[in-house]
Amino acid sequence: MPALALRGGRLRSYRRTLAARDFRLLWLGSSLSLTGDGMTFVALSWLVLSQPDGTRRLGLLAVCYTLPVFAGGLLAGPVLDRFDKRHVLAADSVVRGIAVASIPVAASMGEMPMVLPFTVAAVYGLFKMVPLAGFPAVIPDLVPAGQREAANALESASFSVAGMIGPALGGALIGVIGAEGVLALDAASYVVFAAMAVAVRRPLRVRPSAPSPVPRAGASVLSLFRDRVLVVTTLAFMAFNVAEGMLLVVGPWLAKHQLPGGAQALGLLLTALAAGELLGAAAAGARRPRTRPIVAIALVQLVAATGFLAVALAPHTLPVAAGFLMIGLFSAPMTVWAQSLRMDRIPAPLRGRGFAVLRTLMQATPPLGAVCATPLLDGGLLVPAAVAMTLIAAVPGLVLLAAGRHLK
């Protein structure tokens, strides 16, 4: 009975959070758009792998997908804090939807330029930080403080469910409607998200009582880096994302050259990763960690790091997929707990810029991983790549664990 009551309490927490109409609209629209994005990554990867010298070009695609995030994130924060976040999210969806739609449109008119997938990936990366920073920045405005854990878990779960459905569906549909048709579906999902963002009733714009000059506002953002908890957790996430950036290249390479099934194998790996993230997010959002959040984040990062070793077990698909599952299962709580930690420590007028800066730093490191993984795979050095990913993810977790015991 106590276990059933606890489980019922957890479900009620999620139901209360989803009962908020405006949060529910944004969450559903974001989830649908993310599902389309999961399909797009598979479709773009397959288009690039079909080009001459596809393995090296795949590394370039991963860089285009991730490197512009740094520049885009620096611009996204001030825009999110200055304008109504509903309109910013809608405009972002329109721009990226047009970019994604350019490939099926070009294909329908004749031969598609070889550079177009890389251009689309770069546009995606440039604007990626708008929803990544915008959604968590509006959570405190849309749900009560006591429901933030559940809201953060739902945001993480939307990434996981979308990552689970999108890649698998994209891999299956490539053989039916082609990669161009898959991209057309993603473009449609952007339109739906834009409509749902505009339908939110509550204004999502901070209106300070007295305007602050721009230099002072900038100094306030820089002051976040005097918070040692924010600094050490951000550095740990940056390192973990280097390993995940390597995985962006390793996964498609394994599906193309090592695992049976081709695009379906890639969909399976990404689905396993997302399934783990979904389970991990659901568990983390139901309750706060029993130990200090920073220590709990370090512990799950160490466990997640061991999952990278499984890629060395190719060509056996199931053990590799189990490793992807493990990475997702233990990395998702990192995100949920760290996001709640940031919401407690970043002042409301700085949430757009604060989340944009911190998430930009974390999202800017995967290109480094992609660059490191490409020559290793080009030389057939899969085992060294697996060991490198594991160490890059685990060592900062150890540092965070040691530092976390002394930080408040």
Automatic annotation (TrEMBL):
PROSITE patterns reported in the protein's UniProt record: MFS (PS50850)
Localisation per UniProt entry: Cell membrane
Name listed for the protein in its UniProt record: MFS transporter
Coiled-coil features, chain-numbered ranges: none
TM spans (from-to): 25-46, 58-76, 88-109, 115-139, 159-177, 183-200, 229-255, 261-282, 294-314, 320-338, 358-377, 383-403
InterPro entries in alphabetical order: MFS, MFS_dom, MFS_trans_sf
Keyword presence, Transcription: no
Gene3D superfamilies given in the database record: MFS general substrate transporter like domains
Domain Major facilitator superfamily (MFS) profile: 1-405
Keyword Membrane carried by entry: yes
Keywords: Cell membrane, Membrane, Transmembrane, Transmembrane helix
Family annotation (PANTHER family): INTEGRAL MEMBRANE EFFLUX PROTEIN-RELATED, STAPHYLOFERRIN A TRANSPORTER
Membrane topology recorded in Swiss-Prot or TrEMBL: Multi-pass membrane protein
Cited Pfam families: MFS_1
